[in-house]
Design goal:
It is built from 5 helices and 5 strands; from the N terminus they run E-H-H-E-H-E-H-E-E-H. By secondary structure, the protein is α/β, with parallel strands linked by helices. It has one domain: Dehydroquinase, class II (Rossmann fold), CATH 3.40.50. The chain has a 5-stranded parallel beta sheet, sandwiched between helices. Helix 3 runs parallel beside helix 4. It starts with a strand and ends with a helix. 1,3,4-trihydroxy-5-OXO-cyclohexanecarboxylic acid binds next to loops. The site of 1,3,4-trihydroxy-5-OXO-cyclohexanecarboxylic acid (DQA) has 10 residues, from loops.
């Protein structure tokens, strides 16, 4: 089974960025933990700060991979292009947010991605990625 984790803009700064919201762990070290925890899965990781690169990656892998875990970050609230890319592919996409987007600023409470995702996990910290993998495993 192949699962890809895709992170959007500014998530390369996890561990340094607003740690009171997003925590102190960087994603590279968390990804190493995930690989140990889910050795039976072929896990890959991609991060980009650019909307076009995220669309291209979703198109590139979306017809062959078994599932995608996507944290579109700020593009959740703005990107019809990422929404359309998800609608176009075959792979199920689980939307993950580290923080609870419904308990923050009003502009974060709408996600263009949620209506095309199979499910949404928001506010459970990095553990959300782990739960998203488990949900794809039991699909
Ligand atoms: C985020 C929430 C978004 O509103 C924000 O722009 C992010 C991260 C989260 O994981 O909580 O960059 O997607």
């Amino acid at each position: 089974m192949q699962i890809a984790i895709i992170n959007g803009p500014n998530l390369n700064l996890l561990g340094k960025r607003e740690t009171y919201i997003y925590g102190k762990q960087d994603f590279a070290s968390y990804f190493e933990q995930l690989k140990i925890q889910f050795q039976e899965i072929e896990l890959s990781y991609f991060q980009s700060n650019s909307e076009g690169d995220l669309v291209s990656k979703i198109q590139e892998i979306g017809f062959t991979i078994d599932g995608i875990i996507l944290n579109p970050a700020a593009y959740s609230h703005t990107s019809i292009a990422i929404r359309d890319a998800i609608a176009a592919i075959k792979a199920p996409v689980v939307e993950v947010h580290i923080s609870n987007i419904y308990a923050r600023e009003p502009f974060r409470t709408h996600s263009y991605i949620s209506s095309v995702a199979v499910g949404v996990i928001s506010g459970l910290g990095l553990k959300g990625y782990e739960l998203a993998i488990e949900s794809l495993l039991t699909k």
